[in-house]
Design a protein that fits this description.
Length: 410
């Protein structure tokens, strides 16, 4: 039965095709469900959210207060203040050996807005965007919103050579972008210099394909790994690479909502044009805080990355004795991606058959009080994602509960 407008309220038939193409964020929905249960008095260990549990550095907060007191509370340039874009240019040169002018830098309300604006600015109906799976849940949804077709390429087995062959097989005349995230959400997989070199060589053979590189977890790497980004490895790709980053994960500034990108001036202008007709400039005070973060001391970044590695090692030890949940060993970021496929099809104590990873996540939430994300929205059915951006106490308690819950599954 078709929807109608009744009492002045628009039904689904009044919504745009773009909105109907996408789904609500699975991450936000799971986090909201955990919050609701907590509000009802349930003791929930929430490991759904991808944000550091550390405080924003004190000098960053002080810079924001100083900016407010100095009257920096008005609109700024749509694509970010000149001062912040200059600081981002210094960061790109310092950390990535990338030479961007302020005119080649965009600042938005989070790295997510940079990704969204770039896709909306470039993707037309029928265009294809290759996405390496598993991937962050928002990538394919943003491609769909823009009218494009996400082409999911599983990283899977067969090593990097197999992945490279699968990517090349999917390149067509309609391919607009290759999206790269390393270290990746949700698995923590990392593309090293040799692997990025191979991807760069592939892109050189296909000059119509651009690279959208999400480096948001750049500073969270384990076991002495050194970060490198695509345009750094191959300068000939700089003009058709959009390098995206932000202050949220590196400096524990998720709520400040500042992300940025470096790319060709024409693309940066188009992204700012979209922003001028949507959100307009990012928060002025947040921009002042981001400037302080980028130009300030960086020791705290390395210290916090070491804490994440200790948590990773703790979890790998704990999950070695949890039946039915096989963890990956993430090389970066702060997620454990758990292969739970052998639990699918088994029976819970209430007598329900576990038919999917989503049902398994719901079972763990309701029976064990542990909130995790199911893998299907990330492009990996049969998996669960655990964020270890949480205290060791909470992580150990979650493991204790999951171990007991898995023992009860028949």
């Amino acid at each position: 039965m078709s929807s109608r407008i009744e009492g002045g309220v628009a039904g689904p038939d009044r919504l745009s095709a773009a909105v109907r193409r996408i789904r609500p964020s699975a991450v936000n929905m799971a986090s909201q469900r955990a919050r609701e249960l907590k509000a009802q008095g349930r003791n929930i260990v929430d490991l759904t959210t991808g944000e550091p549990d550390f405080a924003t550095p004190a000098h960053v907060c002080e810079a924001a207060i100083a900016a407010m007191r100095a009257g920096q509370t008005r609109y700024t340039t749509v694509g970010g203040t000149l001062e912040l874009r200059q600081a981002i240019a210094r960061k790109f040169m310092r950390d990535n050996s990338l030479d961007y002018s302020p005119a080649e830098i965009f600042v938005g309300a989070g790295a997510k807005q940079a990704l969204f604006n770039a896709l909306v600015a470039t993707v037309e109906s029928g265009d294809e965007v290759i996405v390496l799976a598993p991937c962050w849940v928002a990538y394919p949804e943003m491609v769909l919103f823009a009218g494009g077709k996400p082409i999911m390429v599983a990283q899977g087995t067969g090593g990097f050579g197999g992945l490279l062959a699968r990517v090349e097989k999917e390149i067509t005349p309609r391919t607009k972008w290759l999206m790269i995230n390393s270290p990746t959400n949700p698995s923590g997989a990392f593309l090293n210099r040799e692997e990025l070199r191979a991807l760069a060589d592939l892109l050189l053979v296909h000059p119509h394909v651009w690279a959208m590189v999400d480096d948001i977890y750049e500073q969270i790497l384990f076991d002495g790994r050194k970060f490198v980004t695509l345009a750094e490895i191959e300068p000939r790709l700089k003009e058709r690479t959009l390098t995206i980053n932000g202050v949220s994960k590196t400096y524990s500034m998720t709520g400040w909502r500042i992300g940025y990108a470096g790319g060709s001036q024409a693309l940066i202008r188009a992204m700012a044009k979209i922003q001028s007709q949507s959100t307009s400039a990012p928060c002025s005070v947040s921009q002042a805080a981001a400037l302080a973060a980028l130009d300030g001391p960086q020791d705290i970044v390395r210290e916090r990355s070491a804490v994440f590695q200790r948590r990773r090692d703790l979890l790998l030890k704990e999950f070695a004795s949890i039946r039915g949940m096989r963890p990956n060993a993430p090389q970066g970021a702060f997620y454990l991606f758990l292969d739970c496929s052998e639990l699918i099809g088994r029976t819970t104590p209430p007598g329900e058959t576990i038919a999917s990873d989503e049902q398994l996540a719901t079972d763990f939430l309701m029976r064990a009080g542990v909130a995790l994300l199911h893998g299907t929205p990330f492009g990996a059915p049969g998996y669960l994602r655990l964020s270890f951006a949480a205290s060791e106490e909470n992580l150990l308690e979650a493991c204790r509960r999951l171990r007991a819950a898995c023992e009860e599954i028949q």
